[in-house]
Write a structure and sequence with these properties.
35% of the residues are buried. The chain is elongated. The longest helix has 16 residues, at 199-214. A hairpin with a 5-residue loop joins strand 2 (38-40) and strand 3 (46-51). It folds into 2 domains: 2-90 and 182-214, D-Maltodextrin-Binding Protein, domain 2, CATH 3.40.190; 93-181, 3-Layer(aba) Sandwich (D-Maltodextrin-Binding Protein, domain 2), CATH 3.40.190.10. Strands 2-3-1-4-11-5 form a 6-stranded mixed sheet. It has a 5-stranded mixed sheet with strand order 8-7-9-6-10. It is of the alpha/beta class and 215 residues long. It has helices spanning 12-21, 56-61, 72-78, 122-131, 147-151, 165-169, 189-194, 199-214; strands spanning 2-7, 38-40, 46-51, 67-71, 83-87, 93-100, 115-119, 136-140, 156-161, 172-181, 183-187. The protein is built from 8 helices and 11 strands.
Length: 215
């Protein structure tokens, strides 16, 4: 039986809607009273796992799920050993460097050597500033990273931005974008090669559905 890891949070509703379009119904996860973290879809074709977004690629990499849906930002940060199968197109956001609007920094190149950058995307932030040959101290923060520049703990942040409203309300502005992110379908490489649970058919149906939506 095919097992699909689904992310809690903002991507869940669109993920379930897309899977429904190809005959896999995990809509029970949308019931606020639901406490089960593993369910079988109505057709009995597949199981769904409801997990924290950061854990989706872990379940897929270790083979407890053959397929998963997660944002590209998580894949860039974690670099799991999974197959990247389909760009699903929803869940758009971007990874950006932001600073206080009142600061003199108009570009990452303006940041001081050995300055501090707060981020929960530690690897992405470190790689980006290394590519610019700017020595930066990365401060790991896992909530309200906007407070870094506000409190003076850091000169800048590297974080996911969707509408930009949170930055604006906290007096921050973007000064560059590292990359753009959307939801991706990932797979366990060996399971995909072996076509476990008829994965190929499901992936192809999803690919066709996404292409129709994009038209």
């Amino acid at each position: 039986m095919l097992t699909v890891a689904l992310p809690k949070g903002e991507l869940l509703q669109n993920s379930i809607r897309l899977l429904q379009s190809v005959g896999l119904d995990f809509s029970a996860f949308l019931d606020s009273k639901m406490r089960q973290l593993q369910i079988t879809d109505a057709s009995g074709q597949a199981k769904g796992l409801l997990v924290r977004g950061q854990d989706v690629p872990v379940y897929v990499e270790y083979g407890q799920a053959q397929l998963g849906i997660i944002g590209y930002d998580v894949l860039r940060e974690k670099k799991p050993q999974v197959a990247h199968l389909v760009d699903l197109g929803f869940g758009y956001c971007r990874m950006s460097v932001a600073v206080k609007a009142s600061s003199a920094y108009k570009s990452p190149l303006d940041l001081p050597a050995h300055g501090r950058v707060a981020s929960k995307y530690v690897n992405c932030a470190r790689e980006y500033f290394h590519s610019l040959d700017i020595p930066i101290e990365i401060i790991p923060l896992y909530g309200s990273v906007e407070l870094g520049p506000i409190t003076g703990m850091s000169e800048a942040i590297v974080d996911i931005v969707s509408t930009g409203r949170t930055l604006q309300e906290n007096g921050l502005i973007e000064i560059t974008t590292l990359y753009e992110s959307t939801a991706r379908l990932i797979g366990h490489p060996l399971s995909y090669r072996l076509n476990t649970g008829n994965m190929h058919q499901v992936v192809e149906k999803l690919r066709q559905e996404v292409s129709l939506i994009a038209v």
